[in-house]
Amino acid sequence: MIKAIFFDLDDTLLWDQKSIQEAFVATCKVAEERYGVDATVLEDAVREAARNLYSSYETYSFTQMIGINPFEGLWGNFLDDHDDFRKMKEIVPGYRKEAWTAGLKALGVDDPEFGYELAERFPEERRNLPFVYEETFQILDSLKGKYQLLLLTNGSPDLQNTKLSITPELVPYFDQIVISGAYGRGKPDPSIFGHALSLMELEKEEVLMVGDNLMTDILGANRAGIKSVWINRHDKERNEVIPTYEIHHLEELFPLLDELNKK
Predict the structure, then answer these.
(1) Which residues neighbour 89 within 8 Å (Cβ) at sequence distance 6 or greater?
(2) Residue 42: what pLDDT?
(3) pLDDT in tens, 37-72
(4) Strand partners for 227
(5) Which helix (H) or strand (E) segment is 153 a member of?
(6) Within 13 Å, how many C-alpha atoms sit on residue 79's CB side?
(7) Is-contact 232 225, C-beta < 8 A?
(8) Residue 239, SS3 per DSSP
(9) Residues in Cβ contact with 95 at an 8 Å cutoff, skipping those fewer than 6 apart
(10) Inter-residue contact 126 to 133 (CB < 8 Å)
(11) For 66-104, how does the pLDDT look when each residue is reduced to its tens digit (9 = 90+)?
(12) How far apart are CA 116 and CA 19, in angstroms?
């Protein structure tokens, strides 16, 4: 009998990739207007510079364990009470400026002051552009009251709570919200799933984990002995991680739950 559903946040309920994409489009347009550079080419250059810089910092292994990607580093403040987050807070202003300045330089524009301006613009754009999948609220409305709901998200508590504060209507649906940076380890570590189970006072057989990421949500649930549902909206190829179930739209959860609860 399924009693609870654990949901991932980013790219499962919130369309984070679209928010990041649109923030890049808006910010790169400023550079196109100022210098005539191709906004799409600039975006690619900044993304590449950001990835390279991000992986060079001493905080990189921590960000991997907690699950914070380079583009979150381009807009998060990391005002969290933890040594590694404090280091990130010190690193990110320079990281943002360097990533944007290096992106501009790759297109032949050497203007660190403008790089700084774009670096400050991007977080503003991202905060103004929260996207939620069109079916998210309808699905949560249908599940609330029938199942206990827990949000299980990787990331910095400060940044994940910022995402939730700009989409405040999501929060009331959840009985518990577990953020990896507050717990100390991220998905796919099975211990964070164990922590979530103990908060809900549930057995692993009573839970479904729904997420878009095979290497965190699905692998972690599998390791913890929890049934996993991979939401594969964009027909991605599956890797070696095998979910218990695969769906392409959150509405497909309903027949799945009916089937499981008949058993």
Answers:
(1) 77, 78, 79, 80
(2) 98
(3) 999 999 999 999 999 999 999 999 999 999 999 999
(4) 208
(5) strand 148-153
(6) 5
(7) no
(8) coil
(9) 50, 53, 54, 57, 73, 74
(10) no
(11) 999 999 999 999 999 999 999 999 999 999 999 999 999
(12) 21
**CB count, 10 Å around CB of 206?**
17
Place of tokens 């999948």: 133
Residue given tokens 């890797």 in the structure block? 239
Q: CB neighbours (10 Å) of residue 261? A: 12
Dist. CA 154–CA 66, nearest whole Å: 6
Supply the pLDDT for residue 150. Answer: 98
* Rg over CA atoms, the chain: 19
Within 13 Å, how many C-alpha atoms sit on residue 219's CB side? 12
Q: What are the per-10-residue average pLDDT scores of the chain (263 residues)?
A: 97 98 98 98 98 98 97 97 96 98 98 98 97 97 98 98 97 98 97 98 98 98 98 95 98 96 83
Distance (Å, whole) CA 28 – CA 37: 9
Peptide bond between residue 188 and the one before it cis (omega within 30 degrees of 0): yes
**H helix count then E strand count, the chain:** 12, 6
Pair of tokens at residue 196: 């979530």
Distance, CA of 221 to CA of 228 (rounded, Å): 6
- β-bridge partners, 150: 6, 176
Question: Which amino acid is it at 96?
Answer: R
Domains parsed from the chain with CATH numbers: 4-15+131-262 (3.40.50.1000), 16-127 (no CATH)
Distance between CA atoms of residues 10 and 20, nearest Å:
11
